[in-house]
Amino acid sequence: MESKIETPKSKIGRVLAYRRLWILALAVFGLDQLTKSWIAARLPFGSYGPGAHVEVFPGFLHLVHVGNTGAAWSMFSGASLWLALLGVGTLAAIYFWRHSLGLRAPAAQAAFGLLCGGIAGNLVDRLVHGHVIDFLDFHFGAYTYPTFNVADAGICVGVFCYVLWSLKQPAAPAG
User: pTM (2 decimals)?
Assistant: First the structure.
């Protein structure tokens, strides 16, 4: 017997059906914007390297203030407008295909909450600053991990969680 998920009838009921997604998205977005504002108020833009950064854990974690006009690891550098459009398109696609993505499931909502909050945080940066503010700078011996922010972490963790959740779902019948 096939189980049917009932769709809430009222507009508020439909919004509340995705409450985990909304709560996590707003939390990631808020924390991202708060931390970026804090960094921008305390470190001048371009603060990177000896004497310019703040060492939180010497030789491991530094706080910096840099801009990234590209995507993760500075891929597509200089394409901030196109990446902003991609962010808007991605959020719209998630909305329109929310049923196909399984967003009624709590785990999927959590994953997409992290993802959407991160996309929105970086989108605001691109629209306001023309670049994404990055500030978390990790060092592992001689290796320096690419600088990132809370939104980037939300996006990566959200995608990872959704992939894991998707792999645990039963296969759709061939049809």
Answer: 0.86
